[in-house]
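Limitations

Structures in this collection are predictions, not experimental determinations, and the ligand pose is part of the prediction. Treat each record accordingly. The example that follows, with magnesium ion as the small molecule, is included so readers can see exactly what is and is not provided: the inputs are given verbatim, and the output is the predicted complex.
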Amino acid sequence: MSTALLVLAAGKGTRMNSDLPKVLHPIAQAPMLAHALRAGDALEPERKLVVTGHGADQVRAALADIDESAEIVLQEEQNGTGHAVAVARDALCDFDGDVIVLYGDTPFIQPETLERMVAARADHDIVVLGFEADDPGRYGRLVTTGDTLERIVEFKDASDAERAITLCNSGLMAAKASVLFDLVARLGNDNASGEYYLTDTVALARASGLSAGVVRCDQAETLGVNSRAELAAADAIFQAQARARHLENGVTLMMADSIYFALDTVIGRDTVIEPHVVFGPGVTVESGATIRAFSHLEGCHVSRGGIIGPYARLRPGAELAEDVRIGNFVEIKNATLDAGAKVNHLSYIGDASIGQASNIGAGTITCNYDGVMKHHTEIGARAFIGSNTMLVAPVRVGNGAMTASGSVITKTVEDDALAVSRSEQVNKPGAARKLFDLLKAKKRKRAERAL
Ligand code: UD1
Ligand code: MG
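Predicted complex:
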């Protein structure tokens, strides 16, 4: 059975107190919406639709980065969850599989849970994801008879007896597209909120002789985000889960609580991560590497045996082969470093390629930007770049070549050549002593005058 994800994300998120639409606020460096879509990806959906209203342009722009295959459906006025589903009807008019309704602001739904919902569709026309709540609060309540779901009652509309029910509605639902759209078309809004409730589809379905069932999940999965405080709490939960996962996978984490992971961080076995390391999006670290304290990595790849930091910054496009060493206060951007290359101290390497086993001396800078355009620096294998070399790109230093310390390199250095590009040293015998005497005399005079 093919599936379509329908992610409801049109709400305003007033309590976030933000110009950014709620679903674009990040958890683990990825918008909440990306978490929901990622969970749904486990179902290999044929279509993915995001219902957006508030901040629709921002959501559309962000979706291009998050998931190009996702489509936008505009809900101009937010008249309730049932209305949000109804506006997707046209977009899905020739889709005849199952629709899975998700929320853009519940980032912890597990793929296995969605799979269980899809499986339960074999027994029921409508499947609702429910959970036993410690504190049912204002959640909708699931009214059941045995295994059958009779209806969902919203807190505002519930009687005291119904409010005593602890089985709550997560908001997620699965049904055949034609069934779902037929039901939402029949919804009314005669209720405490004056909204079209998606939840009312259950009672309508039952009245039409369709069956409805509940799949249960842990309440932790249904955690929603409505405020910055809840966003921070959700991020902390994600980080705790990520740490547990990496430890389980054989990664050593020193002072684990100080390490920050992104949604998509991949780390190989027997890699050691020292304290206070931050992973931005798009990082892969292979096995047996060491990421030393206070390093910041994003959009990069560290191969086996690499040693990075302390205090290193790997930016997008840093592609490091086996056993590369990156030391303190070194920044690497859009650059490939072949096996065994070393950049150990105080350098900027951007828009560059560095050959195997080359050594880049302290303070080396690839001057990649001329104020308008970016240019490439190429360094061959086994080259030795002297400390404080400025490599003015575009420029090439050949295999086995050397540059003298303090050189400004603007022209190609051939293989095995030594480039020296700095003014020649002149020594003046005794001149230092004379200069010292002169300066000390000046200082004395100044002190006398001040008296
Ligand atoms: C909803 C459920 C409730 C459930 C709870 C779980 C209904 C009527 N109630 O209530 O049973 O326990 O979620 O969190 O469904 N949205 C739109 N367009 C709209 C309205 C909402 O896209 O017109 C989106 C929101 O952005 C949000 C989601 O749908 O992502 C849920 O909306 P929300 O207003 O939070 O519903 P609740 O009142 O919490
Ligand atoms: Mg809500």
